[in-house]
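explain this.
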Amino acid sequence: MATIGDPFVLSSYSQSKRNAKAGPSGLSNVFASNQYASSSSSDGYATVAAQGDGVHVLDLSTLHPAISYTLGPQVHFSCPPATRTTTANESKICTTYAVIESASEVPEDARGKTVWRWRDDPAGNATPAEAQKRRISAVVPHKVSRVYAPDELASHVLLVGPGSEVTLAGEDLVVKNTSKPDDEESLLGSTVMSRQACSFVHDEAAPLRSVLVTIGQKGSSVRVRVIGVEGSGDHHVLGSSTASIPAAQSILDVTCSNTGYISILTSNGTWHSYELVFADQTTLTMSSLSNSITLGSLSFISTASQPTNQPVLSQQEVSVASVGSSHVLLCGFSSGKQSDANEVVILLWDLRYSVILASQTYPAPSSLGRSKKAPAEIQLVVGSPIPSQATVIISPNPQPANAQRSSGDPGARSTVLVVPLTVPPTSQLTNAIGRASASARWFAQTSTLYAESHDRSHAKVLHNLRVQLDQKNVNAAEEAFASWVKEEDAKLPQAPEGAPKNEVRLGHKFVQDVLELVLRPAKSSDAALHSPEIVKYLLRRRAVSSSMIEGGLLPALRLRNDWESIIFALKTVIDISENDLTIFVRDVISTHAASRSSGQSDDSMQVDSTSTSPIPTLPAALALCVTYPMSAPAMRLAIRKHLRDADALVSVLEILLGWVESWCGEEPKFFPQGARNDGRGFFVPVMEDRKRDDLPPLAKVLTFVQILLDSSFLTLLSHSPSHQLIRRIMACLQPELDLNGEIEQLQGPLQPFTSAMPQPQSYSDANVAQKVLSPNDLNKSTPSEDSDSLHTSSPSPAPQYEIFPRDGPCPPIEICELIMGFVVKYHPLAAYVNNRWSQNLSDICRLCLVCRRWVERARYLLYFWVAIDRESQFVKFLSVLNLRPSNGSYTRYLDVRQEEQPDHWLSAVPRELSHRLANLEILQVSRFRPTHVHPTFCKSLILFKHIKAILADGPVAAGGPGFLSHCLRLALVHPNIQHIAICNVNEGPDSLPFGGQRPGQSLTSVTLVLQPSLKLGRAFQVLAPCAAQLTRFTLWFYTPVPTGPPTSEFMPNLRSLQRFLSNAQSLQELKISLYAIEDITISTYADSSTY
């Protein structure tokens, strides 16, 4: 969807005294560019050159100058500057180029040929004086009208002269080569695009980095040259082509898009369109695409009085710029009404279809000083083939050297605006449909773009209708129209058998003219004339649009009380407004109310005294409105405006309530009525939508109920008869809402499967099997499906069909991530639960179904388990949490691993992460070496207030010494810990004390993974106070190779274990194993039954 946002001011500059007077060259007061800047910043940079001031590089994300070069009042510029942003040593470097028209140090013969270059850091590491000292100056062979510094030519700069000369220089402004056109010409415009963005150049030109397009003029001919630029700096002409422009039209501006779409705007408002096409690698053609359009309601058309055959650029109140494909942005001053004469209008055109996709207006700055004698100047600049923003410069118009002094305000200022844009990537008919009416204002009154002349047949029948209706002979008019339809139908060729019948051709203009004759405006003297038969024929052909009639179709039919045509229109016309729909319902309510008050019986047919057809009942009228496509916000406004009466609202609500109760009283259907073989071996379900001829669809009814309550709830609340109705609606909806909440959980995981189910192209195809299986057929047991067949000796035959093909759908990636994250990865509870499956099978099912919050699930998978093993990871993790603190709430498991060298960052983990990981439950310290951390590290772990488990993993597996006492002290430091696990440690010196820690009262689970040679007597003494409260105890002994029964050296550990477990009366789970590392075998020495 194309949009133009509200413009905002980027900067403002006072008018140079030299330009306020009669200047030597009529230069623009301000030049600007933002080409190729967006690649280096989120919003990019705009480079502005103000005459008599300097060059300023503005950051569009902050709207502040990033770099400024103040040059003084003597320096003037020839053309817009250019800036290229690169990265060096992790800092941005801006290289800015400007062409100097005049300066104290520039000689007379070098004016317009001198190029200055600056290199600076936007961070401001260099002073302006230092930047000026580093400035490079060079003189090129010709004057320069445009300078380009594209990113794809990182070490080069392109200079385009006023005669379409092209010079390519190095980054240090050393000229490498120059080319000139074969004939003299005046440059109209030029553009540079990357080779990847340019789609009209042949693929054989792959070595090219950039493509330069120049458009020049000589006499009445316009010449286009396409030049390819290689990365080495060499450039050559890929092709050229010429088109002719009428001699009476002077060219104001030109554009060229990345697809080769060229537009040429002339002084009388004519806009020509061409397309560049390479017939081969060297032959370029410039073909006209459509008839030229003539613009209107713009100020430059009435003020353009320049001599013909001369390019008049940058001195008119209009500017155009290509924004990709056939989309062109136009900026100018509107004309016409006095209130609009000083407005800047920005129009986004699709010239392929000659429509405006989006528009925006902006009041002209009060400091501009614009008047009839002192017009303004507009420049439009875009920075990429499909930009997200454009830059508009509005300046006082400079005066040529030979002009008399202007009466403009010498204190006028130039304003630089930024305009946000949303431009479709390609030109599509769907974007242009319905935009003709919005575009009509900007066409000249004499434009023939939308003029549609009738053929003889249409003109004849229109003349006959006009004659008969002027004589108020409606029947004769209907007979004439019916005769014309019959004659035209006889001329149509016979349609092939099975094909739709050929219909009489009707055009938009013809139907509109017919409706204007048979439905005349209400203010006319013969407004009562009406031909319902002609209207019904046009409605039956679905050729009528509500916008064809002044004031709308429904009001015109209601004026004539043609209720039958109104009902027909609601079924065939697609653009009836919400206001007309609401007025139709209101009129039906008021008409029936008037009939009842006049004493008519409710059982008799209610017919208006002047009606040409029966009045529809309120349920029938409301059903048409409920099912009609509408916009909810517009419908709410229409109800507030046209349906204010509380009694009328209650009448509508009663009908809606009846429909809701009828739908809610039906038995819900969750299973298909059967299955159909599609002929390829796939069984597809046969689903029937819930439809009732006497009721509108439930979704439509509920939508209208919500709209009605949103718009009129306060009115209904103050009207007591509506209270019971609202309660009944709520009573109907609440059970449905609860059911939908449960079923909606299945939508995410099951939607990919239902959408990927193979659907037959046509069930009428003779090659497709037509048998429909009932649910009973599907539920019948087959040998492969019967549970008893699992115990038979012979395998069951494979079924002859499969629900999904082998290369068909797979589970959504979210489900795959959940299952793999649970089954494959190391489960957080495995260390002390010692079971990865039995207690979590139900969790797998629940996780697979809860997929509504995909973003939440993705963040959960990313942050649930965090492992940090080096300082760089720790710093990066902190920066991520600072940027988005909410991510820390997902972390439940933190694994920090020490390196071989002392880790200062590990000592900072409790202080930096305890408040950021508020929901942390499990802390694992791997390869723990107490000598490599601060002495207070263990005590600082109490800052993690919510952890339930501590896993201390020694460095024995990594080849380092790990002492049981250190790991035990680490595990018992937290008073509220519930589970501890100690792995991969050796005993250490006998003299090493355990530190006096005692287990907390909440400790209920202990896991030890140790070598069999380790002496555990002292460890069990430390853990003895918690033995009575333990519910789970696991002891694994791991060995390099499988071993036999326990030896005598191992028996002291068993006796210590027996004394420890004799006090563990609350144990619910006990596991003791010998674990062999090499072949992953487990020998159980004892289990809970042993003790």
Notes: The radius of gyration is 41 Å. The chain has 30 helices and 43 strands. The chain has four domains: 3-442, 452-489+506-573, 577-596+608-672+691-756, 842-1087. The first strand starts at residue 3 and ends at 4.
